[in-house]
Amino acid sequence: MTTIVNRLHLLLTLISMSKAMECQQFRANLEADNKISTQAPSDNLHAVSFATCSRSCINGCECFSFNSRSNMCRLYIHRSSCDPSNMTVSEAGWRSYTIFEIQPTETLPLDCKSLYMNGKRKSGVYTIYPWERSDPNYRPVQVYCDMETEGGGWTAIQRRVNGEESFYRNWTEYKLGFGSPNVDYWIGNNAIHQLTNGRNLSLRVTITPMNGGSVSFKMYHQFYVFGEDLNYTLQLAVPGNGNLDDVLLYSSGGRLTGMQFSTFDVDNDKSSYNCAATYYGGWWFDNCDYAYLNGPWLSNDWHNPWHSQYTTAVDVNGTSMLIK
């Protein structure tokens, strides 16, 4: 029985705020109790507790020893230093631990496609996690997922259903997002950047007409938004199928690609006047636009929802911008 106990490994699990929020584990070999390594430690320090000693084992530290009697902590950069074959010097109170990392069993969904791949097939509001837990911007984000259109798994970055949510918002509100995903909302420019960063995503724009006709749409197969340091500059390319004209790339004075985002309080457009203030909403304005989905609902001030098929607000009964 004693032999079996001596060969048991003690597993102590601590949560470490590392890049992916891994579980950091320390394996203690009880056969090496009351012994220290013949190899010199990289650091030898006082620690009031095991937890204090374990938290010191960072930046290349592979194993450590803690003495519960003297409250001393010895750190090693080589895993072999804590191998029982090297723990041959007797000294009461010591126990050695080897560090290793495991991934958590739960993988949080990055976007609606992740949810779709995990069996979610019903369109509706879901929670996604665009940022890693170690990121200062980390937070769960509620979004509307279209799980039925063209293979499903589409994340709505913009959605307007009933016009109850005002899109005449300032820079910070567009940065962080606003509204309710089940009706009208903007996911937030920070989230759009994070979702598109380093990925090859498509954009699907839809407009629902007021007269009850079929939904109009346009596909673009390259969609990317830079970070706030570049004012959320939009990169758009490779137009695809759809019955909406391609006015985002090829309309003079209204191109979206290469445009910085503008709001009434941060004017980045190419016009001599403030397009966002004039047309009451944030957007990637050029001079100013030939397509603009964030204008005031059912108002004469909504300028060119989609030229020339939808030129006034009274033509539009809903919009969405979906990415996948």
UniProtKB/TrEMBL annotation:
Residues of the Fibrinogen C-terminal domain: 103-324
The protein's UniProt keywords, in alphabetical order, are:
Disulfide bond, Signal
Pfam families attached to this UniProt entry: Fibrinogen_C
Under the heading InterPro entries, the entry gives: Fibrinogen-like_C, Fibrinogen_a/b/g_C_1, Fibrinogen_a/b/g_C_dom, Fibrinogen_C-term_domain, Fibrinogen_CS
Superkingdom of the source?
A: Eukaryota
Signal peptide stretch = 1-20
Coiled-coil portions: none
| The keyword Oxidoreductase is assigned to this record | no
Q: Name one GO cellular component term.
A: extracellular space
UniProt-listed Gene3D superfamilies = Gamma Fibrinogen, chain A, domain 1, Gamma-fibrinogen Carboxyl Terminal Fragment, domain 2
UniProt cross-references to PROSITE patterns, sorted A to Z: FIBRINOGEN_C_1, FIBRINOGEN_C_2
Task: Fetch the NCBIfam families from UniProt.
Answer: GGGWT_bact
Put simply, this protein is called: Fibrinogen C-terminal domain-containing protein
